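From the pipeline queue, job 12 of 40. The input is one protein chain; the requested action is below.

Action: predict structure.
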Amino acid sequence: MDFFHGSTELFVEVQFGGLDDSDKTTFKKYLTSEEKIVVRKTAFLGGSFEYRGYIENPAEEWLQEANASAYTKRDLASSLPFHPFIPDSGRISKQHIIDAQNSYIDQNRDDIDFSFELESTNFLGLKTVAKGIFGEVYFIPAVKEASDDFTSKDSSVFGKLYADVVALMSEHNNDWKETKEKLGKLFSTLNKKDHEGNDNTERPQQLSDFERELTDELVSWGAKVDIEVSAPDIENVFKANTQVWVDDGVRTDIKRKGHGLQRALTVALIQVVAKRAIAAAEIDGQEAQGNRKASNSRYFIFEEPELYLHPQAQRSLFDSFVGLSESGSQVILCTHSSGLIDVERYKSIYIATKENEEYGTKFKQCSEDLFEGDSKKDFNLSYWINPDRGELFFASKVVLLEGATEKTVLPLLAKRLGVFKYEYTLIDCGSKDNIPLYVKLMNKFSIPYVAVYDRDHQAHKGADAIASADTSTQKIENEINSDVGCSIVLINDIEEELGLPNGGSSKPYVALNHITSEGFDLGADMSTKIRAIYDAEA
């Protein structure tokens, strides 16, 4: 069922950038002019798979590596432009031609036409060579038994970590070494020959008698039986007899714990993997550079990591993911929780939507810098005013507001009018001057929005204050993209619209107390604006 509409193959393509000198040497064949490589892994119906890389293939056939074997005759090779790069004498091999092609391309790249296409042979020439080069993928699905990760099997996350621990014990623990040696000697006494090939005089007679009895029954076949006993791999024995218990007041296995603790254990395991990988990478970086070994790259893919976790734990978990990412690993989350969204990291956010089957799933992302200087500082500071602003990425529409008073009273008034919508998110931007920053973000992600702001032409204000308010107003209107959002202006502020007295403190509470008091009358003009905010007919 993983194969679309009866197709017999599926594939994933990944582009790698930020290559170091070692990478550029190893993957020279696939290195693009932008110093990136693109690799495709294809899975076929039935279970087989292959890796292939994209290459910049020269248009000229005599420069294509796939045709190198056709030019190994000296007469033909000498007639081609790359002939200065072939050996002067001796037999010309296919590799000689490939080296000559590459040398010619390096010196004449600007004069050669290339097409970017998938190679016809396996990646780096071998079917499975890519597996160790590209690093390990740790996928944690939304619903999973934590016990699957905590088995001692080599394929499990715990098994991989535990194998490292056992290996270190075997290498550095003297008692462990001595036990292995004694176990090896014990089992060597069970065989006919010792480890030096001499007859073993200490072999138990029972084994020799058993061999002889079997051999006597095979006389007519001219065959002999030799029973050889190999010493067990103590590391595997150690791992096979290991069980993980968790004591949170009651000592049980993992399956008997709540889903929240199970999820926390899985995340803890991943974090240990990451920390060990970071430490290993630092050690490797300090050692001399040699041939490329298995990659230190780690890819952590979490599906709904917020499941079974309360909001505070989700926020803590997100900080752990950020640390994991900043330490060198790549972290991918699929989430429905605003607690795992940081608006400041807007470049890393993708919004996946599916409006209908015809167009399928589409992704929206902003990869450019939106804020600079003071605007970046103001946008980041507004987080402390509204820490839940990550919710806007899940909204069908966002209502951008100047402050807390509007955010407090507008939903209540909308409910009174019967037009409230839960799929709309109201954002307290902190000030009128911050609204353009959010408008810019909404435009880039194509999230529908309405900017609600004060005209600020109160009677008590002077000409300079009114001019300043008009400047702020114009900045908002300049940013609004009519294809995505619009604006609604309050005259002159929310207090005036609701008939609140000027001055006073605790504005949200005062406003809330005012609109819930007996005899409060919501004017027709404000009713129309609230209906417009919530897309309801006036």
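Job complete. Residues 39 and 53 are 4 Å apart (CA to CA).
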